[in-house]
Specification:
Chain lengths: ~250, ~250
Amino acid sequence: MPAAHEHPQHHINMVKGDVAPTVLIPGDPARVLVFAELMDQAHKVTEKREYITYTGTKDGVPISCTCTGLGCPPTAIGVEELWHIGAKNIIRIGTCGSIQPHVRAGDLVIATGAVRGEHTSEEYISMEYPAVADYRVVRALIDACRKLDFPYHLGIIRTHDAYYMESPRASGDFRARLQPWIDMGVLCLENESSALFVISSISGLRAGTILAASNPIWEAQPSSEEWAANIRKMVQAGIEAARLLHERGLA
Amino acid sequence: MEKQHHIQLLPGDVGETVFLPGDPHRAQLIAEHFDSAQLVAHNRQYVTYTGTYRGVRVSVTSTGIGCPALAIAVEELVKVGGKNLIRIGTCGILQKHMEVGSIIVATAAVRGDGTSREYFPLEYPAVANLQVLEALLASAAARRVQPHVGIIRSHDAFYVESALARGDYLARDKPWIESNVLAVENESSTLFTLSTVRGCRAGTILVGGGHHHFPERPVFGDAMEDLLHQITQIGLDAAVRLAPAG
């Protein structure tokens, strides 16, 4: 743990004490507002670039939410600076594209580990180092989903950089590009978790990821209302997991 | 069905939980902890005993050293009914703050081996199964053992990265030491990746027999036997926890 910083962190614009021990990190700034709505109370701490932070309480437990923007480059910055100001648990909350027939819209995905299909984490440590979620955060996310009765899948996800190479809107035969991962049982695609996991393991932070799934990306997708409802469930599970980590003496 | 080419086993020859030491001699020592055990097969370095422990059918298959031989054992064990694969072995400690003789439970492994690369691109993570990890931790806690829990490094060339290695091995270890890697050994990265993809559950529990910062203080003899006895007991208790209820 680095020394306490008195000056606000360069990007997230916060000092020690501005965030709770557990911070949820969405990519989309809109989800910070979903978080604020689901808390008993929450106030906006700061906003700079794509980094917006709210801190609040749920059942008396302090929890924060900092948006990191899309992709590993800004996520890495967010995670580093949250670590500098005393965060202990970081839970990514977001959405993903399913690449397995049994992972469908309405389901949540809890990551045990992530394929490192991005380059940010490789600047930290070579590719053979595992992007693994912290098992205590994974356990809290599982228990949260069970308690809330939300269906979930547990397994390895794929993080990558280029959305327009691996998505239903991608050019060319995206399914052929994805086939090796489908065959390995990788559940879904997203853009942030592998850097979060690698940097957290190196720094001694506990990290996890929970995602709202789409239908398999080669199929029709749910309506925007359905998406919004699923995202709400996902954020709710993230908040409950944060509460459980606090209850278990891990925050 | 013919017997599996290397391990010389048929479906039904092993329990759902199979312990995987590297050393063939250790297969026998582990089997001595079972309530009953029978030698089922012995071919090359692959020695298998099957028996029961507290009513649960368990097995031990030695794999020999390294991922090439371990991958063969995993592929063939899955075909004959192995579901929980628990590596029990030794490792070299990397972190200065850890004692020689520490017990380590792996959450994941650095893929410094060649075998798993032939199967899966390097960006795929080598992660231990959550249920096996939790069963090992609960079993250790019940026996009042406090293991170090974290990432280990698997690699191929013992004489490049060990307390007995040539040259400045600590310089080679530096990136791993700085990334909180606890210890080095030779099998878990292939065990974790291959098990995840083949749909079985894998975990690893180790004793740090050597220490990269204190090469003059290895653990051996009776002290080592006692530690291996402890991790075998923890592994057996984990097998009971992993067995289906009833």
